[in-house]
Amino acid sequence: MIQKFKMFTTSTQIRVRYAETDQMGVVYHSNFFPYFESARAESIRELGFTYADMEKMGVIMPVVDVHCRYLRPAKYDDLLTVKTMLKELPVHHKIEFHHEVFNEKNELLAVGKIILYFMESNGMKKTTMPDLLMKKLQPYFG
Questions:
Q1: Closest CA to 83 of 106, 100, 103, 60
Q2: In terms of DSSP bridges, do strands 119-120 and 79-86 run parallel, antiparallel, or are they unpaired?
Q3: b or e along 99-110 (b: 16 or more beta carbons within 10 Å of the residue's beta carbon)?
Q4: Which position among 22, 53, 77, 131 bears the catalytic label?
Q5: pLDDT tens, residue order, the chain (142 aa)
Q6: Going from the N-terminus, what domains does the chain have, and what CATH number goes with each?
Q7: Which of 39, 69, 94, 99 could form an S-S bond across to 112 if both were Cys, CB 3.0 to 4.6 Å?
Q8: Active site (annotated) includes residue 22
């Protein structure tokens, strides 16, 4: 019997601006992190939820670990597709977002992983994902 792997996946398109490139017209390496951030925010928005909603509930999500592996260059004016995946439903204070960046030729340019913690905005103590967000994510994981 084949088991179907379940996860939450979204895609966000981002156009490379001139200011994001170096002298060679290639996206400067650190600019991939804002692309990941935009894609994460949009993925949560697709659930009908926002970071602002969490902040109103007293929960913040600081980044605690980032990784990016660069495979091919992204260039000025490329239309990038940033695929964002949650491969596991968070059950504690940590959430891991996985990202893949593709160009218009569907070539994989970079892969990244960002770990964030759910924390109480007052006191900075670790907490769990807000129940409302959990309810919106659960259907994607069966």
A1: 100
A2: unpaired
A3: bbbbbeeeeebb
A4: 22
A5: 444 558 999 999 999 999 999 999 999 999 999 999 999 999 999 999 888 998 999 999 999 999 999 999 999 999 999 999 999 999 899 999 999 999 999 999 999 999 999 999 999 999 999 999 999 999 999 7
A6: 8-141 (3.10.129.10)
A7: 99
A8: yes
Amino acid in the structure at residue 90? P
Paired tokens of 18? 């001139």
CA distance 1 to 123: 48
Which among 130, 138, 142 has a CA at the least distance from the CA of 55? 130
